[in-house]
Amino acid sequence: MDVEREGGRGANQLRPMDCTRSVLSRAHGSASCSNGETRVLAAVYGPKAGTKKNENPEKACIEVIWKPKTGQIGKQEKEFEMILKRTLQNICLLTAHPNTTTSIIVQVAHDDGSLLPCAIHAACAALVDAGIPLKYFAVAICCSFSESGHILLDPNKLEEQKMKALVYLAFPSSVRSVLTEGSENGEESAENGIITSLTHGVMPVDSYFQCLEQGRAAVTPLTNILKKKLQSPSPINQSAAA
Amino acid sequence: MGTSTNGKVNDFSSDMEVDAFRRLFPLRFHERHLAESIRPDGRPLGKARDTTLVLGAVASANGSALAKIGCTTMLAAIKMEVMAPTVEAPDEGCIAIEFHMPPICSPLIRPGRPAEIAPVISKQLSDTILRQEIICHYLELSLVSGKAAWMAYLDIYCLDADGALFDAALLSAVAAFSHLQVPVVSLNDDGRIVLISEDNIAAMKEKEPVNKEKRKLKLDSVPFSLTCVLHKNHILADPTSEEESIMETFLTVVLDSSSFQLVSLNKPGGPGLAHTSAIQECVELAKLRVKEVQKIMNEATSDMEQD
After folding, report:
1. Over the stretch A163-210, which tens digit does the pLDDT of each residue have?
2. All domains of chain A, ordered by start, with CATH?
3. pTM of the prediction?
4. Contact present, A29 and A69 (Cβ < 8 Å)
5. Does the predicted interface ipTM exceed a cut of 0.90?
6. Which CATH class is domain B43-180+217-306?
7. So where does this one cross the membrane (chain B) (predicted)?
8. Which of A37, A218, B26, B272 has the fewest Cβ atoms surrounding its Cβ within 10 A?
9. A199 CB near a chain B CB, below 8 Å?
């Protein structure tokens, strides 16, 4: 598939990704994630005692606060908050800290497309940095479907606007899970499932499954990058050592 | 209570009243039903609740509909106003969509504090209805290029929230659009747009109405949706609020009624994962449901025309 993309990228080529943890000193856990020009900062506070009203006290409660780059929080941000919250509910071991609340604050520093995947990575990295027990990592990707039927991965803002449809997907990372729950549930392993799916725009059903396949192919390389970035020492620790 | 240690459900349920069992072990209660491929309300897993649709429920609105899926009730109404179009799009009208959840609809919603889910459903409805001009072309809402266009205010009120809110909201919204009667307007001597009321036929003869033909919006393809709950290997179509709160993984498929193209496939996280086979099954269920809802909608429209 020959598609002209800005910066000479191939259809399946992702933008350079970076992830740094422990960027804030006061937060219990923090991380900054960038994906090309898109940049998101996440901070974790908690687990704090007690859950919010109407939440199950037998499980940990997760609270997400989304801060846009400028202006007031709107419907779009509310939707991202809800999706991020429910995605994190999937990856966290909620029974490990019952009757507690963990707040995740997401601050958008720059939006140049694929914002939600970048925020999911930042939130996961911040949770890891805070030492919150996770089942696995959420690896997210944005696929876009063009008028001519091409699928481009990780579109930037300009490409997002030109595209016919967008698919945001979050997969569990390809790290072997310590839980055996997935294996006893059936023949399908956790790696085949999706945590989150969000689409914008009309597309044929088959194209959605095509996007799913292409997105899934990117999970293993993305997992490896994130793992490597998280293993490297944080900048605060480095300066302390020096 | 020694039976709890060996994990056998049977021992428990036999010496306990059904209602008590349902309240104390809601998940087990539902899982025992699922094992028998039936749901507590007697439905098979893949069947949606009874759906009714009444058009023209609000007399003062230009278009309105009351949709009921089981107990979930949604009232949608459209009000049309004339506005000046933007400079960038002089030939386009505008649709503003708002979803309301008043405290009457659910015990979980307290007065004074807006429901968290309401703006999210509002956003999803706008995305579904406005994107790709599924419902209508904005061009149809134009009156005089660059001078006047229609602004449609669509408000959807949730009267009873018993699960699958998005499905019911979308159905009521689409039905309200199908019932919409665009008011007749004409240009007066100052070049302003004035409404012509139905009883003022004389005025209609005097001045040529601007929109003689465009009284109804063309609806060639409309979106319909189906929400499914995923629990282990089971797929439950059209969950009630009880099912939604116990099995928290759900997936909403929105399909186009004419070409069955995918308008939206939304799975907002949740404790479970969705496998490709399960997604395919949900899409198949949604296809069947779209045909069913289309039939209900056609019946409601023909009933309306007879009246």
Report:
1. 889 999 999 986 554 555 544 444 445 557 899 999 988 889 999 999
2. 9-233 (3.30.230.70)
3. 0.88
4. no
5. no
6. alpha beta
7. none
8. A37
9. yes
